[in-house]
Design a protein that fits this description.
The protein is α+β, with helices and mostly antiparallel strands. It has helices spanning about 20-25, 65-80, 100-105; strands at about 5-10, 15, 25-30, 35-40, 45-55, 60.
Length: about 120
Amino acid sequence: MATLPVYRWRLAPDGYATRRQLRAAGLRPGGQDVAAQVERPRRHRDPLVAYLYRIDRAKPVRPMTPAKWAALAKANAARRICPECRRDAGYVIPPSLGMCPACAFPDNAPEGASWNSSPHTAP
């Protein structure tokens, strides 16, 4: 295997881009191997490394189909539903809790709070 050309930070020649730069331009690597890398030196630590791809070999990003949009919407909706009370929290439930805050901390609710009126708690 041949070694990759290594460039210093901000000194890579034109014609190369990182994955993020390709994506911002509406492109993707398209199966090509890493063409080069950029290293950003840091004190007392290993350098930061970014892999570069050739822009002329990049392919356009595949468009989102209606089925992909539907699958993405379904996955995001599932992240908002509390597994305990089965209500839509209106935001992504924190993975550290695993349930909505009302179910995780039922005793911390202020008196008469509507967000704590879940079906599995006694009124």
